[in-house]
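Readers of this paper often ask what the protein records in our data store actually look like. Nothing more is needed to write down the fold, since each code stands for a local backbone conformation. Below, we set out a record of this kind in full and without editing:
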Amino acid sequence: MYKFPFHVVKLIKALESHDYEAYVVGGAVRDILLGKNPHDYDIATSATPEDAIGVAKEMGWQTIDKLGKNFGTIIIVVNGVGMEVTTFRGERYDRDSHRPAEIWKARNLQEDCKRRDFTINAMAMDLRGILYDFHGGREDLKKGILRTVGKAKQRFEEDALRMFRACRFVAELGFDYVDEKGKTISFGDPKSEYFMLKCPVFDTSRCSGLSLDRVKAEVEKLICGDYAGKGLTMLVGSGLADARCYIKKNGEISVIDILPELRRLVGLKQNPKHHFYDVWEHTLRAMDNSPEKLVIRWALLLHDLGKGLPNVRDLNKEGQPRDAGHENESARMTAEIIKRFNYAPKLNRYITFLVAQHMRFAAFLRDDKNGMKIEHSMLHWLRDVVSQNIFRHEEDMVAGCTDLVKVYLADMGATVAGRDHRIMEEGREIGAHLIQLARTKMPISTGDLNLAETDFKKIPEGVNLRNALAYLVKRVQAGDLANEHRALIQALLNKYERIQREKNGARKGKTNKNNSASGGARRSRRRVGTGAAPGLAEP
């Protein structure tokens, strides 16, 4: 028997002690049956929100009126953990594509489960471990299939977000979506493992009534799923990627595209010398081979969008397709899409950086073959990145380079090179080298210098500390000074002594009554030169 966490047991027992039914429902039950640990637990109960709030107050628990009387859901916090508690309910939908127009209290658990989206989410379990499965959800879990509760057409007409949730569950679980009565098409290359013999064709007309926030949340979970490639195949093949949703900004509502740019990649051929797959399958394989990190998955989804466009594609001398510089066009399109999805500008710049630079390692190798050592090429590139103000601190750039290496390896692994262990190992070595250089030889801010607070005591009085540290950062970036505290302090002392000698020489020249006019001019030029150097002294 499954052992529920203490806060779940406590809440359900409290409700049952007041003669209310209470069950764990939905995703938690599904995960339990799959042998996973649920992230959270939702409770369905015969108690009304007012009844549940009364029980919580009696127990001294905090309550949050999440949707309240309108939707029958509150949050009860037990031992610091919040759980959604929803009254058994039925619902009717109208114009809104996600929120019910009418909700009423259902008579029992069975009627409540009838309103849910998919059979695998329509199960309940009590504290004794007894499973309540009215729609064959457990059997569908065993078969690895995703089916709606009742007619799919009706479920999706009620709530258009359920279509996106279907793609998301396919991506998370790797299940096959099944609707024997719905319209389907075969989608993709029949030779590909991503081929869908029966891809659903959804009616996306109600998607424009979905908010971007809702759609984006599902898309994020989809692209970060263990089977993202499979979920994306269904998203594009079903027509959902071509659909539109709405966004509300500054009180104004506008309808926007979701991801129509993806469909063009399906079947887009590449040079067989370097690629086994078309652009679409290459993209899916790269994503499935990468860490489940949102920025990496977004970058890989969009990294080849520029391929095949008239201003990018041409043919090489063998007559094979070539997309030189596609990363620049992909980066431009990425910036537009990430902005459209209403991400913060900082995140937009970061994902666009990963896309724009995903071919950088090929450039490092070309430089190496042309006589420029890889380390020199990498340092030159890192200096350029620093000048673009993409990262504020060294640790940020190290993280950026680390993610870029992961994008590069996933991308390369989905090409012909992916089957060559030697090439892949070389790629990992080059990536590790870049990360090490970013960590040790390219400080961005003065806080990245390898200096301790005690080191500042060695700096002579009268030195402008801010100017001094900026001077050290520039020298380390230029590659002529190690980011090591003894070397840094010694470089600063040497510079200070040189400035002092020049100043003393200038003062001595001023007191020499026999100086000629030309000598005075030379001293004047010398003073200008020292002032244009680092300016370490206080004014």
Observations:
- The radius of gyration is 31 Å.
